Structures are given as C-alpha cells and as structure tokens.
C-alpha cells in the first residue's frame, strides 16, 4: 500500500512538469538558458561544450575542462593536421580611449622596455599586430608584477583619439583595472549600471498565454511577432557585480576606460588550416560611403 501511495505521489509530481515537447519549444529553451546563469556565467558556446565536456566552475564562469571522450587523439589530430578552435571569451577586455600621447605617457609607468616590447612598439602601435607584455604597479618595476596581458591598438582613422584593447586573465582583472584607474586618475561615475531583468519562465508562460489567446498559430507568431519570443542573454560577466559600473572617465587627461568583458568575443584557432578556415568563413565588408 505504501508503494502504491508513493507511486501515485510521484505521478502527481511528474504531471506538474511540462512534457518534453513543451520544454523543447524555442520560447522555453531561451527562458531556461537565461534562468540558469544566476550563479555562473555561460559562454555563448556553453551548450555545445556541456554536451561534450566535463564542465568546471572557475572565476565566475562555467567552462569546459576536459572532453568526455577517453582519448585526446581528435584534438591532437585537429591541432596538427586541421584546425582546433578554443573559446577564450572568458578572458577580460579593458578598452582605453583617448589621445595617443596621453595614453602612452601613463602606460609607460606600468611596463618596462627591459622586459621586451611595450605599448609603443611601432608594428603594434599601427594596429596590424597584437602584442604581449607583463604589467607592473606604477613605477615599481621590477617589483610588484601584476601579470601578463595581450593588447591590440585600433588602426588610425585620422583623428587624434585612439582605442586600445587590453586582454587579461579574469584572476588579474581587478588588480589591473584598479591600477589603470589610478594612473589615469579616473573618477567613479555617479550612476551605476542597472542590468535588464531576466525574463523568468513564469513571465514567459504569461506571454505564451497572450499569444495563444489571440488565436494565431505559434509558428506564425514566432516568425512575425518577434516580441513574443525572448532574446538569449549573456548576463554580465563573472568578474563584475551586475550593479557595478563598467566605464570610468579621467577628466584631467580625457581618457575613458570601459569594461568590455563578454561584449567582445575571443576565439583561438590552432592548426595548419586555421587561415583557410577564416578565409572561407569571413567575408570582407564593402567600404561604406557616407
């Protein structure tokens, strides 16, 4: 009798859950994608990795650690003969905007020519190549190293202002950001960033009910009534509180520091066919005329 009661209780609980067909609808999949990023941020390739990799939670992200396959031959074969792609979007990106001489004057304080190239290297300053170096606390070289970074300048467009993107590991971001704000004397903005509220599954069900009450088919509504379909969102990033500011301004030097983490995606291609993959995937945009 107890087993029968237990079976009836389980049946009632199962009846409350949606069937697989309902769960697999696009509107429900996107709502579930948004809901499950509450604690650890997902990369845009998360679902692909989650089906094929053991996932780990590090630095505020959910990342693929090792493949579920027992052999690493497929990855090795891709690296040596084909092309292997890695998603490095969890790396943090800080954008510096301002006059070139003002940027270089202060950036000299956190690097040294004794360690190799600097931000002033000619072929990097042109924006054609990416550079890498070690950063130190201001005027403290060779002590107090912050860590290694990579950087790339936006090519010159005729104006005085330049843009510089600095990429770093998420474990180093807060220290490097604090040092950059200090050397450029950036002030904290008065208004803080307020993220958009994530649509919950209950709200999505209400939207779904409104759509069905109009008497139109779901497929037609999904195509034409785009407002009824939620948008897949990457919520913030794992290194910043959602209510923390994401840009800082230096009123003395006119420098703007922006946190572009998870706004600019980053992928690494390894293998002899990497260039051919890029040429077949990407197409050069036609020059725009104003």
TrEMBL record:
* UniProt record, GO biological process: tRNA 5'-leader removal
GO CC terms, sorted: nucleolar ribonuclease P complex; ribonuclease MRP complex
Q: Which residues form the Pop1 N-terminal domain?
A: 4-98
Q: Which InterPro entries does the entry link to? A: Pop1, Pop1_N
Q: Which Pfam families does this one have? A: POP1_N
Protein name as annotated: POP1 protein
Instruction: Tell me the classification of the organism that encodes this protein.
Output: Eukaryota, Metazoa, Chordata, Craniata, Vertebrata
The gene name reads Pop1
